[in-house]
Amino acid sequence: MGPVLLSVRGVTRVHGTGTTAVRALDGVDLDVRLGELVAVMGASGSGKSTLLNIAGGLDTPTSGTVVLAGDELSGLDVKARARLRRRSVGYVFQDFNLIPALTAAENVSLPRELDGVRVRAARREALAALDEVGVADLADRFPDELSGGQQQRVAIARALVGPRRLVLADEPTGALDSATGEDVMRVLRARIDAGAAGLLVTHEPRFAAWADRTVFVRDGVVVDGTGYAAGPESLLASGVR
Questions:
Q1: Is 154 within 8 Å of 107 (Cβ atoms)?
Q2: CA nearest 102: which of 36, 58, 151?
Q3: Fewest CB within 10 A of the end CB: N or C in the chain?
């Protein structure tokens, strides 16, 4: 795996004040490396989505630090944080969030156009991203002409277009049948293996199995993790023969 792209240290997120305060996260530490997919599991309300939002700069922690691609998010103003988020982070949501009036290619190219990339160049990047996820032939179709699995592939292409290296996926298979969900995970896994980093929120163990490791969150605290697989060097160091 590559270097650490996302580093979360001592992150706490409190909603409300006084007796009504809710600690959505409580001292969370987490690193995600390039080439690594980390699954986050836990019960509803455990803090999974809050962690995802803070990791991507959509929310700010009450305390602690988040460093993304070498930049500490709390040290950036609103515009700089939005710019970093737009250029470095791709989001994949359960309900796809595609714009109905735009074609697949237009949905994917839109973030690049917002970055100031010319329309033709943005379309070339969009077509390359759609080809990467296996739906280049659907570039000129509208979302309502696509199946759920095809829409999710387009959403993944949108999350990956351009120089973005961190993919945040919030239950990306929740609205899909099992077979289609496996196809989507295969696409996501391939992109991580190609050099991106990924944080996946899921409640399905079979989809978490696509990750390099899994962390479990309960009441805003990381309570367990599968860790990294032991390599042969660690076995030799421990005296195992």
A1: yes
A2: 151
A3: C
Exposed (0-12), middle (13-18) or buried (19+): which is 240, by Cβ within 10 Å? exposed
Mean pLDDT for all residues in the chain: 89
User: What is the pLDDT confidence band of residue 230, given thresholds at 50, 70 and 90?
Assistant: very low
Any bridge partners for residue 33, and if so which?
4
Write the pLDDT tens digit of every residue in 163-217. Answer: 888 999 999 988 888 888 898 899 899 989 988 999 999 999 999 999 999 999 9
Rounded CA-CA distance 111/158 in Å is 8
> 61: exposed, middle or buried (C-beta count within 10 Å: 0-12, 13-18, 19+)?
buried
* Residues 217, 223 contacting (CB under 8 angstroms): yes
Residues 6+ apart with CB under 8 A from 111: 86, 158, 161, 162
Q: Which helix (H) or strand (E) holds 183?
A: helix 178-193
Q: Residue 13 pairs with which residues in a beta bridge? A: 25
Q: Which amino acid is at 75?
A: G
Residue tagged 């990047």 (tokens): 125
- State the Cα–Cα distance between residues 26 and 13, nearest whole angstrom: 7
- Cα–Cα distance, 174 to 240 (Å, whole number): 41
Count of residues making up the chain: 241
